[in-house]
Each structure stands twice: as structure tokens, then as C-alpha cells.
Amino acid sequence: MSPLDALLVLLAGVGAGTVNTLVGSGSLITFPILLAVGLPPLTANVSNNLGLVPGAISGAVGFRRELTGQRARVLRFGPASLLGGITGAVLLLALPASAFEAIVPAFVALGVVLVIVQPRLNRRLQRSRGPDAGDGGGAVALAATYGTGVYGGYFGAAQGILLLAVLGLSLDDELTRVNALKVVLAGIVNSVAAVVFLVGAHIAWDAVALVAVGSTLGGQLGARAGRRLPPRALRALIVVVGLVAIVKLLA
User: Fold this and answer.
1) pTM given for the model
2) How many domains is the chain partitioned into structurally?
């Protein structure tokens, strides 16, 4: 990896850590960059997953105030995220690499669509919270959390947006606190998937280190000052990067 490539991966890690802490979909920044510097899709996906784990931890630390009083929720939803992450990671390693390469453009496209509709989704979530809303963690919510974990363990881009939708419809709380819980649960998915990948996947450790450093810094930026970034500009950047990735993958 050339010095310029390393700088691009590092900066992508900062962007991904920031975006993941704010809404999710940071992998739509790092994954295309890892492809651009020459990593095969499967190796890029696995290395990206490992590199974003420190960013999730950093974001959770940055959101420690919003996480106050949410221990019971973590214990309730955490196992579903953990099991989902294991399932997705095992599927990724068990299925042929050609299967992942064939389906990943569709996953990136899904991530781009979710980024585009995320503001409207947030507005719907806000309207869904009323005086009669509960703090649910029933079978449907847990099953949906497991499903997002499977998706996150297999690929991961925009899993945060899916998870935020699930939690937002289940919990009666401010969106910032729900988002903080989302950061923790997505971090569980990435962490347990990373353990699986350590055992059975090829990893580009130089890329992992660069993304890890960048995402750790980005996690703090996202929790502290990231809310000041123009949301439209941020979404536009992610959409452009995602579309470029789709073109590259299909070509």
C-alpha cells in the first residue's frame, strides 16, 4: 500500500467512525476505498469490519451520558445482536467468495437507498413516539434486532440505519439516546464478527490498523462535534462514494 493509499484509508476510517456514530452506514465510505486500493471484496469487507470495532467502542464512550440508565436495554437486545453477528459472519465464511462478490453490489445499493431515505425514516420514528409508546423488547423487536445483526455480520454497511429503525419503533425515548444504544449494539455485532473472522478469514492487517486509528478518532468526532456537520452534505458524500463502489464492482 502506497503512502497515498494509506492516507486515503486513514481518512476514510475517520469518516466512517464519524458517520457510524451519527447514523450508521460508515462502511459505505471505507469499503469502496479499500476496493480502490486493491483489496479483493471479501478481504476488504473482513478487514473493514475489524477496523471499525475500535470506532464503535470510541463512539460508545463518547455517548456515555446518553447511555446512562440503559444497561437493561443493552442486556435485553445485546444477545440478539451477538447471535445475529455470529450468524452473519459464519455465513460470510461458509458461502463461496464468488457468492459474496455477486451479491455485494446489491448490498451497497441497499445501503445507499437507506442513506437517502434516512431523514424521512427519522421523521416517521419521531411521529411514532407518543404518550402510548412503550419501552418494548418483545419477540418481534428481538427478532428484528437479530436480523440486523445477521446483515451486519455478513456485510454491515447501513446496519446502523436498520437498527435505529428497529429500536426507534420499539423504545419510548429521545432519538439521541436510542442512537447511543444503536452504537453499542452495532459494536457488539462488529466485535463478535471480528472474532469469527480472526479464526477463518484472510485479513489485510495494514488496512485494519489504518481504519482502526481513523475510526477511533471519528467515533469521538461523531459523538462530540459530528452533529454540527451539514446532514445533506454528509449524505451526499456517502451516496456518491456508494455509487462509485457499485460501478466498480459491476465493472
Assistant:
1) 0.80
2) 1
